[in-house]
Amino acid sequence: MIDNRSKFFDGSNQSLIASLCHRRFGIGADGLILLEQAEGYDFKMVYFNADGRQGSMCGNGGRCIVQFAFDLGIVQDNIRFIAVDGPHDALVKNGLVHLKMIDVTEIAQHNTHFFMNTGSPHYVQPVQAIDQFSVIEEGRKIRYNDRFKIEGTNVNFSERIDNTLHVRTYERGVEDETYSCGTGVTAAALAASYSGMESPISISTLGGSLSISFEKNDTTFKNIFLIGPAKRVFEGNLKLPCL
After folding, report:
1. What integer pLDDT is reported at residue 181 of this predicted model?
2. 111-131: per-residue pLDDT in tens?
3. Is residue 36 domain-shared with residue 64, that is, in the same domain?
4. Which of 79, 184, 227, 230 has an alpha carbon within 20 to 30 A of 205's alpha carbon?
5. How many whole angstroms separate alpha carbon 136 and alpha carbon 125?
6. pLDDT score of 241
7. Same structural domain for residues 74 and 27?
């Protein structure tokens, strides 16, 4: 995550971004986020996948950049920023970031899965024994099938255990399982509401615990909030390579 309000970092350099995200020869990351200035907003979020290409909305990245801006002193209350999928409101309260997601008005419900856009396209499939499920193998089959292979989709597998929804995600652009996907768990929660789970829904991912709150009216969802902590792991300086 880079404070790029001075525009020193070249976001068009795909090779550079991919090298920074490389887990053996770079910092190692599932993606890169630039915090930039935007007229009429507290800041702009620009998200790149690990392959260096600009991506669609990243929900957990949105929570992280809100905390980043809060730590930098850019924002305090009534936070409003712009991302690739439009404006987002947020607040930091009691150690948790509450990020308002876009309204969801179209959900395709099939026999085995759901498909929707929560800022990024998401395929959601309920499964059993999620801890043993072959997320990478099965997720890759769906992501590269005839329907999705050109533009791609994120693939989420979910299982309700007691009152918690467990979610694992194969993420396009990373082309691997990621430990937590904010737009993915949002999609999984909305899908789970069709089988009786009510807002707020507690979420468990490999990366930690989250919750999703929402208002549902038939097939329309609004006031959707992705809620969870965003903790700084480290900060440092890097001498950029000349690529």
Report:
1. 94
2. 999 999 999 999 999 999 999
3. yes
4. 79
5. 14
6. 66
7. yes
pLDDT in tens, 186-223: 999 999 999 999 999 999 999 999 999 999 998 899 99
Give the SS3 label for residue 183. helix
| C-alpha–C-alpha distance, residues 169 and 186, integer Å | 12
Q: Answer whether residue 243 shows pLDDT above 60.
A: no
The partner residues of 210 in beta bridges, in order of sequence, read 203
What's the first-to-final CA gap in the chain, in angstroms? 20
Among residues 100, 117, 143, the one where a domain terminates is 100
Give, in order, the Cα–Cα distances in Å from 79 to each of 70, 85, 213.
9, 16, 18
Q: Which residues of 84-122 are buried (b: 16+ CB within 10 A; e: fewer)?
A: ebeebebbbeeebbbbbbbebeebeeeeebbbbbbbbbb
**Same-domain check for residues 75 and 178:** no
| Pair (38, 53) in one structural domain | yes
71: left (phi over 0), alpha (psi -120 to 50) or beta: alpha
Residue 241 lies in a domain: no
Cα–Cα distance between 30 and 167 in angstroms, integer? 18
Domain boundary among 100, 129, 145: 100
| Separation between Cα atoms, residue 80 and residue 85, nearest integer Å | 13
Percentage of the chain lying above the pLDDT 70 cut: 99
Enclosing domain of residue 89: 2-100
| pTM, entire model | 0.90
For residue 191, give Cα distances in angstroms to 2, 106, 123, 238.
34, 12, 10, 42
Name the one residue in this structure whose structure tokens are 């498909």.
115
